[in-house]
Amino acid sequence: MRYVYGLKLPITLITNCSLLHTIDLDELKNYIQFITCSIDSVFEESYCKVRGVTPQMYQRVMQNLQLLTDHKVPHYFNSVITKFNTKEFIDKSYFKRAKELGVSSVSLTFVEDRSDVDYSLLPDRETIVKVCQSVLEHIHSKEDPQVMIPPQYFEQIIEHGRGVYDECGVWKSIFVNGNGTVMVPCWKYSKPENTYNLLEKSVDEIWSAPQWEIAKTCHDCEVLGCIWYSSQPVTTFAQNYMRGLSKMINQRVPDVQV
Q: Which of 1, 46, 82, 221 makes the best surface tag, with the fewest CB within 10 Å?
């Protein structure tokens, strides 16, 4: 992070928060814009179910979240909604607990079932609608924590059963796997002929790969928030996103109101 910061590149840390107690948080906050905390549930039973971890790990993560608050490190929650954690969104206990844990902004999205597995983590249609309705009620209440995903995402899922977009925006980012490979255009097309290696190909070559054309007509992702988000016109999400960012900025610099 020191190196990347020295290149004057903006840094966002995405973490499950399990090891934050092992680093110098006061130094860390000098380098980052904010931390994205992958917290799929704020309650022990469902958290352990989704993450496949022990209650002890849940307690460690909760303690580390408190450390972020104590050290005034700007952060927000990114939570994936699955069939294991819908109750806390429907009864809104998620928002109350998230606020108690020190965040003023959250990003919510439904899980997208992968095409290469034989099980589903997505809630049933009736439950999805209940979750969307409850999240929309929270958004309209204007209470903290602010939801960074615009209400249109949840409204479209209620009305159409999926997010609505013209062209998949996956091409706006390149995701590099730990082994240096890139799947073009995305994991749904994970085949040898669609896999490029950054150690063998330049970014320009990968960016110019013919497989990106698939994204112009592919609508396989129905409720995946990041795909919906990247596929929207700027006007759809700018206001919500800036409101969420202003919350995090104010969290970091309490004396400055954005």
A: 1
